[in-house]
Amino acid sequence: MTIRLRLILSYIAMVLIPIFLTLITALVLTRVFFGAGDTSGRGGDGFQFHGHALSEFWEKINEREQLMNGVKFVAEQDPELLADPKFVAGTGETLQGLQAGLVIVRNGVVTYASSDVDHKGLEDELARVDTDQEGRSRWMMSRGPEIGGRYKAERVDFVFGDQSTGTLYLLSDLNPLLGKMSWFMPMMFISLLLIVALTNLLLTFFVSRSILRPLYTLKRAAERIKEGQLDYPLLMQRKDEFGEVGEAFEEMRERLKHSIHLQLQYEENRKEMLSNISHDLKTPITGIKACVEGLQDRVADTEEKRDKYIAMIGQKANDMDRMIEELFLFSKLDLKRLPFDFEQMDVVGFLQSFSEEMKTDPRFAQVQIKFISTAEHPLHVVADRDKLKRVLMNIAENSLHYMNKPDPRLTLELEASPREALVRIRDNGAGIDEAALPKVFERFYRAESSRSSHSGRGGSGLGLAIVRQIIEAHGGIVRADSQTGVGTSISFTLPRQAYSRTDGERK
């Protein structure tokens, strides 16, 4: 339930609940104050009311009204009955039992008055009824010390049989009703205030708690993040706006944690890279310094020795240049800042051309190079020619470092499936230990225990890491398989599906 809907329902409840509770309270108070029997007994927890208490009260009121209407009918239709003392006395006693009174005036003289209204000053009270709005019901204050209180007075004028004037006064005792109302109305007002206050208090408490609790949860989560504690998940488990905020907050925490982890990893990699660069550059620099010192100390006292020392200096400088170039290339790949120039190309023709180029490379002069393809010609993929050539060269140079057989061989294989092209480069070198195999594509990793360098030079430790970065940028995967003493196979895939290129990036 959304917060907006929850607030709307709370507003509706603030109106409907007090109305409902007020009606129930009014019913209960009405039974308490206007019930005929009030209570029949007591239970363990409170009063138990008569089921017919309220109906008995109103039945009594109706019976009184019916009797009064009958008396008025007699005054209009048969006024002589009002001169009959027996009839008048019986009627007066009946009305008295119904908390009412009867007064008959004949020619200005009170001929009968019920005992409950017969008191000193009755004539004055009746005169006030005569003076104010004749013939209509009104309130009459009874000032007699015996009665006191209020009556509802109704006057009916009639004529006796002897043409004498008569006046009938029907008085309804309001003391019981007013007495109950004097308690009923304050109790009803107090109950209404309590109901409204309690309803608003409870609804405000529950609604505010449903809003404040998630706010406190978010606050605690923010404080933990501020203190760098990112391992505590935020589980709101709500389906409202706070739930959406909690999900966004949790996603932010996860991303921040991942970002900090990457930053720490980058920092660790940077330290490792500096350490490896220092170590890798120190070896050729030491060789160059040794050669320069040999020339300065005239150890190379013949032209042949001097040419050898200069050649060694040139070789070491080339090694340093290659290592620095690979370092720059890997850094650009790692930071996603190296642009790719993708184009559609025939990978069969490309591999054939590359194998022929390798055969003319002096570094592979002693290596038997073979290209085998089981794929149809042409086999189109979308790739960056220069980057793909760098991949193949890095794999070939890595194989060259570990060739220790008298007949070194390097085989390029190409296979095709409906979705991708598989390129595999096999050698018959020393192979790589099974424990070291999963790490060969990590930066600066060298399988030292398996090294038997035919060329006498080690790699930079970035060659296969660069291979993985370039192939993954093409949308492919790379893997290594090896058997110690038999050889190593490096394979990678290139997707065949259609690509859309914009600014050198694959869509």
UniProtKB/TrEMBL annotation:
EC number assigned by the record: 2.7.13.3
Could you tell me which SUPFAM superfamilies the record lists for this protein?
Answer: ATPase domain of HSP90 chaperone/DNA topoisomerase II/histidine kinase, HAMP domain-like, Homodimeric domain of signal transducing histidine kinase
In terms of one coarse class, where is the protein primarily found? membrane
InterPro entries given in the database record: BphY/WalK/GraS-like, HAMP_dom, HATPase_C_sf, HATPase_dom, His_kinase_dom, HisK_dim/P_dom, HisK_dim/P_sf, Sig_transdc_His_kin-like_C
Give the GO molecular function terms: kinase activity
Tell me the keywords, alphabetical order. ATP-binding, Cell membrane, Kinase, Membrane, Nucleotide-binding, Phosphoprotein, Transferase, Transmembrane, Transmembrane helix, Two-component regulatory system
Record's subcellular location: Cell membrane
Transmembrane residues, as ranges? 7-34, 183-207
Q: What's its membrane topology?
A: Multi-pass membrane protein
Q: Which reaction does it catalyse?
A: ATP + protein L-histidine = ADP + protein N-phospho-L-histidine
Q: Which CDD domains match?
A: HAMP, HATPase, HisKA
Q: Which residues form the Histidine kinase domain?
A: 276-498
What Pfam families does its record include?
HAMP, HATPase_c, HisKA
Question: The HAMP domain covers which part of the protein?
Answer: 209-261
Provide the leader sequence positions: none
Q: What is this protein called?
A: histidine kinase
Q: Which organism is it from?
A: Paenibacillus rhizolycopersici
